[in-house]
Each structure stands twice: as structure tokens, then as C-alpha cells.
Amino acid sequence: MFRETCGAARDPGLAQACRDARALGPLDRQQSRRFLEARFRAEAAHGEGVLTAYFAPEYPARHAPDDEFSAPVRPRPADLGDTTAQPYLDRTAIEALPPGKPLAWMRPEDLFFLQVQGSGVLTFEDGGRMKALYAGNNGRPFVGIANPMRDKGLLAPDNVSADSIRAWLSAHRGPDAAAIMRLDPRYAFFRLGPDDGKPPVGSANLPLPAGRALAVDPAYHQMGELYWIDAGAPILAGAFPTYRRLALALDTGGAIKGDVRADLFVGAGAVAGAEAGRVRHTLKLYRLVPKDAP
What we know:
The protein is α+β, with helices and mostly antiparallel strands. The chain has 9 helices and 13 strands. A 6-stranded mixed barrel has the order 2-12-9-11-10-13. The radius of gyration is 20 Å and the shape is globular.
């Protein structure tokens, strides 16, 4: 895992460790452990934070709208501009615009979750498959809807998983669900590409290895950095009790803010989605810092 993805590293010591690991070729588990222990030391991030997870979803889509598939997948607007200088329209205003020439049509709740995840695969009624690839956002802050739904009594306090949220939105499709989704002003745009069967590419421009790639806050972390995550005490029902493993910073996310905050990529499809929706664990994060090269 380290050899395949460490090319994203910009730190000189980490880049040298990457070159050395690649020069050694494939190693077994014990050899890999000895290499990492010889070349890195652990530095604990201050305090505790939160680990969540994300995945690459697969959703049905249509080439034309109907009562069920009524949400347009919008391409990046020509007038989007630099959203860091001037935010674009919020979700409510964008959804009030004519659909123009959408890339596809989806169920509203599926499109909402596709926007949260950032990319996915669309399966059309004729059997065709296309990747929906992230093409930008409106520059508005991400606002999670889980807590408001819990506070309104729409979901049980220990059952605010993604599956529960999506089930509620599906069962209340229409004005009620739309009002909840519009609590998040952030809106993502997409482009379509061929489904090559490969994992999605993260911000480091590398395919994301399932279970080993982290989305982090670039204000605190560099792409390609190596970490040990130690996460436990889940608050959502049905979650795995712990996540303890090596992982690399290969992605970013609009909701991932702070030093001890990470989003673990767990794979593609429904099984990965079920897992990702239940991850909200207390996180201890350790950066593996290169020692002086031998």
C-alpha cells in the first residue's frame, strides 16, 4: 500500500523513504513492519477528534426525468468562477434554476448523497454505466443534516446513520425531504466519464485504496503523509468497534476540518456504503514522521 501511493509525498524525507521502499520491491508483512519501524517515528496529534468514512456509491439514473428520477445531475456552470473569492448560489437557489442540459436524472436523495460523497457510478436503464466525477462546488460551507434531523425527532439519537437518513428522505420524497436537504447550502457539480472499474481518484491524483486512504484537512496535513489511526467508541448502532491501521492522506473533503479529523475511504458499492454510514468514532491520530535516512 505504501509503495503504490507514497509518490504523492512532498516532504523530502518521506519522498526518500518512498524511493527506498520501491527499490526494495515487494515485502512480506514482517519485512514491511521492520522497514516502517526503522524509517519512521510516531508523533501524536494533540487531543482527540472524529473519524468518519466515505465510499464510492453506485446509483441508478435515467436519461430523461420521471416522477421518481426527478433531480438533474448538473454540470459545472459556465459562470461558476472563483468560489473562494465569491460564493456561488446556494442549494435552494440552484435547484430553482431551469435544469438546462443535465448529465442525467437521479432520485433526489441519491443525488444528495452523491454530492456528499463527491463521485460515484451511475447505471442507466439501458444497462450503460458512467462515472460521475466531481467538477466543483458552489463554495458554500457543508452543513450536515444528521443532527438537525435528530433534533427534530425525525431520527432516533443512536440511529443517524447514512442508511437511516437516506431511508427517511426516500420515504418523504417531495417538499418534506427537499426542505431537509436544503439545510445544507453546499452543492456539487459533476462531469461524466467512462466506467473503467478502477477506484476513484482523490485530491492527490491517485486511486484511493479501500480502507487505507484518508481525506484530511489540507490546512493541517499534506498529501501523501503516512498516519496510524486509532479510532473507537462508536456512537452509531451497528458500527465496527474499532479502526486501527496505517493509512495515507490522499484526499480532502468539504466537511473535513481540523487537525484530528479524518474521513476513511472504505470502498465502492452498497456494502461499503453501509459501513461508511455507521462510522463516527473517537479518533486518536499519529503522524509517522521520517527518521534521518540511514
